[in-house]
Amino acid sequence: MRHAHVFTAVTCLLMTRTVSGVPQGHGILTDVPDTESVRDSTKYFPSSADHSSSSADNFPLSTDHFSSSTDSALAVSNSSKSRDGKLFPVVKIVTFDNGPCNATNGQMGTCYSEQECVKMGGVNGGSCANSYGTCCVMRATCNSVIVSNNTYWSNPGYPSSYSSHGGCMSTINPPPGTCQILLTFIVFDIVGPVGGDCNNDSFIFVGGNPGLQIPILCGHNGGQHYYVDVDASKPPYQLIMSMSGISYPRLWNIKITFFTLNSPSKAPARCLQYFTTQTGLVSSFNHVGASAQMINDHNYAICFGCIPSYCAVSVNFAPLDLGHVGAACGHDYVASGAEKYCGQYTSSSMVGDVMVLWPVHVPHRLW
């Protein structure tokens, strides 16, 4: 979506809005003198010569966004007397995409005008679009409806912890054309599993494509992420945080990102996690500290993107503990193609050829 914004040094202001991606202009004339004094209007509407050195020429962005659907006419009405012809001032229209931007606090925002950001309830995160826009950071908490890209969903009172029990639910209603949603768990600390089950606190994403297995989470998951395919489903979707009566300083801050079909950052279909860097750390959910418990009944794919000039992926286990060992690894295992790994490994590795992606399936647990 593009928005048009007007900058002029005189008292005429052109207000704009966007309908279906097409800028719509409305001319508003302000501080115009009465009809008797308009005859000498040079001080209100300078001639074209006055604009030869206008600072409006310093605007670097596009100014050609008026079309047949744009009403940009400005006029003085209710006059029966002849007037000397005067030229209206040159009005520069500055436009910029409502794309992602980096806020000064390190978070991601969306570039809007300051007025739009305030209207949507966002937080000013600094400037964008050559200082013509505001990097608007969207935040949400319980009982919110999330419609904006890069919205941060956090516990009430964040960054302070939250000790109440009960439920915290919000709805996601992404814009049309969204085919995938990324949840980035910047901070995630709730009551952990007991015996591998999230019977106390839990978090779940509700919705997504039919047959998609989205894992239930609990415990410590800061730094983790997962993708949800939604191209074959209909919104709205739900974020549900269930909290038991156990006293615990709960804390979460989850970034919600929307991807369209042609987005270069979109993960391949059915990949819960997706890594595109040359090196990195892949760990199971709730993998924090030596005493961390695995969460039961997780079955998902971890995918690695293809990097130019590289033809294989190597995964080093340090350590890997998947419990039961059997000839067919029928319980918990990590698989690369037809190869399965189960049991305990203090140091081991596997290498797989990579064409587009290389999945690692985790039916139950991965340590």
From TrEMBL:
- Write the record's keywords in alphabetical order, separated by commas: Disulfide bond, Signal
* Matches recorded under PROSITE patterns: CUB (PS01180)
Q: CUB domain spans which residues?
A: 142-261
Q: Where is the signal peptide?
A: 1-21
Residue ranges, compositional bias (Low complexity): 47-56
Official protein name in the record: Uncharacterized protein LOC108668843
Q: Which organism is it from?
A: Hyalella azteca (Amphipod)
- In this chain, the stretch annotated as Disordered covers 24-56
Domain of life (superkingdom)? Eukaryota
